[in-house]
Amino acid sequence: MNEYRRTNTTVSLINYHFVFCPRYRRKIFLDSKVEKRFIELVHEICEDLKINVVALECDKDHTHMFLNALPIRSPADIMAKIKGVTSRKLREEFPHLQHLPSLWTRSYFVSTAGNVSSETIKRYVEQQKTRG
Of 71, 98, 100, 112, whose CB neighbour count within 10 A is largest? Predict the structure, then answer.
């Protein structure tokens, strides 16, 4: 979770906490088969996108995800892919969800988290001019 990820051109540590809900706060995750398949799909999508799933939990009417991403992926891109694929596949695989035009609301919560606080980074940046 707090390991820096390296590519040819970047070194990064970008962790996102996402929360989002089904349309009309439907309690779709009360069905354990839907929840299990949703979790499998998220893991597959994240593997394709080279995103590490740090934590993933579902409550009856929303889900929390803690994901570690590379800097080439914006939070909006990540959400678009996860919501798009899971909505389509879950509605294809579970007849009781088929009548929904879309499974998820358009909204979501996102926050960043790292291994140092914003205050520490602010102090570091402010001190750069005074360093030898």
Answer: 100
Q: What is the pLDDT of residues 93-121, one digit of tens each?
A: 999 999 888 999 999 999 998 777 767 77
Whether 100 contacts 23, CB under 8 Å: yes
d(CA 64, CA 59): 8
CA 50, distance to chain mean position in Å, is 12
Listed residue (115, 109, 96) closest to 4, CA to CA: 115
Calpha distance 61→59 (Å, rounded): 6
Give dist(CA 40, CA 121) in Å, integer: 36
pLDDT tier for residue 131 given thresholds of 50, 70 and 90: low
Q: Which fold has domain 5-130?
A: Alpha-Beta Plaits (3.30.70)
Exposure string over 51-60, b if 16+ CB within 10 A, otherwise e: beeeebebee
Q: What are phi and psi of 7, to 5 degrees?
A: -125, -175
Alpha-carbon gap, residue 31 to 116, rounded angstroms: 38
